[in-house]
Amino acid sequence: MTQQKPVDGLQNLSLCETADLIKTGEVSANEVLQACFAQIDKLEPVHHAFVWQDRESALDRARWLDSVRSRGETVGPLHGVPMAHKDMYYRSGRISGCGSRIRSNEPAKTTATALRKLDGAGAIDVGGLAMVEFAMGPHGFNAHLPRSLNPWGHDRVPCGSSSGSGVAVASRMIYGSLGSDTGGSIRCPAAANGIVGCLPTNGLVSRRGAMPMSWSFDCVGPLTRTVKDSARVLKAIAGQDGLDDTPAAMPIPDYESALEQPLSGIRVGIPRGYFDQDLHPDVQKAIAASLDVFRQAGATLVQVDIPKSVSLTSELHPLVMKAEGAANHRPWQRSRKTEYSEEVGKRLEAGFFISAVDYINALQYRVFALEEFTGAVFSHVDALLAPVLPMPTPTLEQTAYSNGPAYLKMVVALTRNTRPINFLGLPALSVTCGFTSDGMPTSFQLIGRPFSESLLFRLGHRFQMETNIHLAVPKALGA
Amino acid sequence: MPIRAELLKELNDETQNVPIAQQRWPELAVELNQLRTAVEAALAVHDFDRDPGEFPAVLRSRRA
After folding, report:
1. Is the peptide bond before A148 cis (omega within 30 degrees of 0)?
2. What does the DSSP assignment read for A227-270?
3. Which residue among A35, A98, A414, B24 is the one 20 to 30 A from A307 at the CA level?
């Protein structure tokens, strides 16, 4: 019976499979949690995904959830599922360090809406996960924390800034995690670690109680192993909360119920321009193979010209991000500069010299770019398929700060294909689509119209069902 | 006229007061000139009547 269920067996189940087993009483929340603890004990000493764990609270919650279940009830669709989140989601009275020294002693005054919603759906919060200092950087390194290691290759970056989320989910320590995405910080670690990352439409999920990096671009979204898991978590966290004005007032669809719908009539776009440039041949090959999967599954492939403005959005993204970040960090940058790592401390410096006029002109352009992109692309296709990382996952050495100009070039290249989507506010779903010749996973992102997450999930789910690439196990787990 | 490192340093001394290492000024000038070039390019489609606060409404209007 469930008592004899091997730990490895439980850990390899998806979030939805696990939640469904708990719901039917085949396994208890406590058993699942113990299996997670065993996996964490086995892998965390090397992979450093966690900043902190609160096992006592997690166990208390599992016991309570099991008592609820014993009465034949469940709290919600995530009943008993262990999760852990990027250490920037506040919970009242608890410290969320945001990957920094500066916030490492300050208990939160509020609880993040996304955490409250996950609590309400029955999830168990196991701990806080490693992240780049103040979410400022795409490679995943944080000088204040032990280095998080990519389970697919310890010599490769886990990407970031949601580095711990990518590592912990890929390593089967937990079933899902909240990350945040300002320029690619959900999709890049999802791609590097061979899992699924969802950037929701700007404004779909409340950011209340999440550390701000850039108000214009910040989005809260899940990292999971399957698309179905992502759909379930997004449904749980999306929608208005009455505290944050950004979430759009619209009903949140039941994403899971649409997953199995056929793809006939769906037009998948092959980008001509920007997203097809500077691609490594291995990535190109995986993308081409993915398109074939969609064609065989009944979708229509359509080549679509990408507006030239996308290139400009990529260049304007750092202007807006740095201006907003500098404004927010100004008191600390003045008086506590030495508490930032050298790499991150420098990152916002340009923001102090961007004029208000330039900043506002960039935001005006954002509206134009969105109108132009949606008009040019989504009048021809329903979703666009583009690579997340244009190159194989870089080595630790390639992204070392000491590498000077080569480092800078690599860091900029990591978010080349992701940051325009944040600028445009569109949803994107990152799905592992194959492996580069060095054995590292590589991903496409499905980019859709605003609030078209349901369609993106449908496409991504079908891809996973057709290929089973998502079932591949990272080397560090004994594959 | 490109932004000069000296100007940035003076601006910092007068208005921002952020501790910035001496060797960073030339790098910051390069970075800011790149950002300014991007903004100048964006002005080619500048619309006097465009309110940046319209962005969420435009997102909603462009849904399927």
Report:
1. no
2. HHHHHHHHHHHBB--SS-S-S-SSPPP-GGGGTTS--TTPEEEE
3. A414
Full strand arrangement of the beta sheet holding A50-53: A50-53, A124-129, A82-86
Q: Give the Cβ contact number of residue A57 at 10 Å.
A: 15
Residue A13 has which token pair? 């189940």
Q: Which residues of chain B are within 8 Å of residue A376 when distances are taken between CB atoms?
A: none
Amino acid, res. A278: D
CB contact under 8 A, A203 and B56: yes
Residues 6+ apart with CB under 8 A from A51: A87, A97, A99, A127, A128, A129, A130, A131, A145, A164
**B24-42 and A309-335 are packed helices; what angle lies between their axes, rounded to 10 degrees?**
140
**B28 with B12: CB under 8 angstroms?**
no
Partner A, chain B 23-42, Cβ-Cβ below 8 Å: 24, 28, 31-32, 34-39, 41-42
Name the percent of chain A lying above pLDDT 70: 97
Q: How many CB atoms lie within 10 A of CB A92?
A: 12
| ipTM higher than the 0.95 cut | yes
CB–CB of B64 and A452 under 8 A? yes
Pairing, β A441-448 against β A428-435: antiparallel
> At A329, which amino acid appears?
H
The pTM score is: 0.97
Number of domains comprising chain B = 1
A278: DSSP letter: S
Q: Which residues in chain B touch residue A453, judged by CB atoms under 8 angstroms apart?
A: none
Quickly count: other Cβ atoms within 10 Å of residue B50's Cβ. 17
How many other C-beta atoms lie within 10 A of the C-beta of residue A15?
A: 26
**In terms of residue numbers, what domain contains B49?**
5-63
Convert the pLDDT of each residue in A311-353 to its tens digit.
999 999 999 999 999 999 999 999 999 999 999 999 999 999 9
Select the residue of A203, A349, A378 nearest B18 (Cβ to Cβ): A349
